[in-house]
Design a protein that fits this description.
globular; 26% strand; six-stranded parallel sheet; 26% helix; NAD(P)-bd_dom_sf; 20 strands; alpha/beta; Dihydrodipicolinate Reductase, domain 2; Gfo/Idh/MocA family oxidoreductase; Gfo/Idh/MocA-like_OxRdtase_N; Rossmann fold; ten-stranded mixed sheet; oxidoreductase
Length: 386
């Protein structure tokens, strides 16, 4: 067997707990070895059960130097990704970088240029892009199973309470101390919706997009958007509409739907489940395996297996991030349009009717304003023009 890849995890709390569990699983399989944890407050022994005794420090550069780690997982605040990623690449350390890669295109280009110069590998953490369902869907479309594609929709209706936005000093911010953060629903919690649709469409590189329109709204006491929609047009003329919210009446599973002239394909990307519907045929449901992105990075480093999510394959998504970053601030909806309700000892804000609007947006390929939402204004394009 190959030697395990030595790892440092930067950001082990919050979503970092998921990475710890995944590292534990791959450690048991002999694929990785955790040699360092970068956190402001050291992890307790019980948090590191099954992971040996990795070094702990709040200095990533020093930790990489002292451990000699071959790879690092960066699961830190969005606005630190480029700086920490570049520091790792400069030491020849390979990366698994959480999404979104950076909060701006300029930072993305700095990061990718630094990685290229260093000759290191970088995987971006869009886990849904490891699903075998994506190639299955692309094969169905290529075979003509649903006829010519009319367009694609994506919908996500999630629930987050007010405490969610207080999870970190940067939560729900567009900027922090003069630095871009862009922690909105489109670019962070439901970022997979857009990234998955772009991959299915074969339009995930920056140059694949012709235009972007946005509608950004908020009902929570934040700077960023908690309810938004976007229309992306590819160079090939395919229209992709995404409608998402964190203010749903009831939580639902996010999905991408491919509309064809002779049927449609729906992909619930968290469940790796695909539904093919065609007139004259019984509905066909299939479930698909998923390749873990850290395991794929290990296979790349040991056997030269291609990376599933290299930075270039997230360029289209970064075009969306940049459009959100440069757009006017999200429209704050009047309290007459929303309500509050208790949840788990806290409070959340609910936008009545938004669950149906997200579904209608994905089905009809329409923005909220085009669906007649009483609180919706018109879209803004890239650069912020309305």
């Amino acid at each position: 067997m190959s030697e395990p890849v030595s790892l440092v995890l930067a950001g082990a709390r919050g979503h970092g707990h998921w990475h710890l569990a995944n590292i534990r699983r791959l450690t048991e399989a002999g694929q990785v070895r955790l040699v360092g944890v970068c956190e402001l407050t050291p992890l307790a022994p019980e948090e590191l059960a099954g992971l040996g005794s990795p070094q702990q420090s709040d200095d990533l550069t020093g930790l990489l130097a002292s451990t000699g780690a071959e790879a690092a997982i960066i699961c830190t605040p969005i606005h630190t990704h480029a700086e920490l990623g570049l520091a790792a690449a400069a030491r020849g350390v390979n990366l698994l970088l959480e999404k979104p890669p950076t909060p701006s295109l300029a930072a993305f280009h700095r990061l990718t240029d630094g990685i290229e110069q260093a000759g290191t590998a970088c995987q971006i953490g869009f886990q849904s892009l490891g699903s075998g369902a994506i190639e299955h869907i692309r094969s169905l479309v290529a075979s003509g199973a649903i006829g010519p594609v009319r367009g694609m929709g994506a919908a996500g209706a999630w629930v987050r309470d007010e405490a969610y936005w207080q999870r970190a000093p940067w939560g729900g911010l567009r900027r922090l101390d003069g630095r871009d953060v862009v922690d909105g629903v489109l670019t962070n919690p439901l970022a997979h919706a857009v990234a998955t649709a772009l991959r299915i469409a074969g339009a995930d590189r920056a140059e694949d997009l012709a235009s972007i329109e946005l509608e950004l709204y908020r009902i929570n006491e934040i700077d960023a958007d908690d309810t938004s929609c976007a229309r992306l047009r590819t160079r090939d003329g395919v229209e992709l509409v995404t409608a998402v919210t964190l203010c749903a009446e009831r939580p639902g599973e996010p999905y991408v739907v491919v509309h064809g002239e002779a049927g449609r394909i729906t992909f619930w990307y968290k469940a790796d489940r695909v539904l093919l519907e065609r007139p004259g045929h019984a509905p066909e449901t299939t479930e698909h395996p998923r390749t873990d992105l850290l395991a794929n990075l290990v296979d790349h480093l040991r056997d030269g297996v291609p990376l599933l999510v290299p930075p270039a394959r997230t360029g289209g998504f970064m075009r969306l991030v940049e459009a959100v970053r440069t757009a006017p601030d999200p429209v704050r909806l009047d309290p007459t349009h929303w309500r509050t309700e208790p949840v788990d000892g806290g409070v959340r804000r609910v936008l009545p009717g938004i669950d149906q609007l997200t579904a209608d947006g994905a089905q009809r390929l329409a923005l909220y304003s085009e669906l007649g939402a009483p609180w919706a204004s018109g879209p803004a394009g890239e650069g912020g023009e309305r």
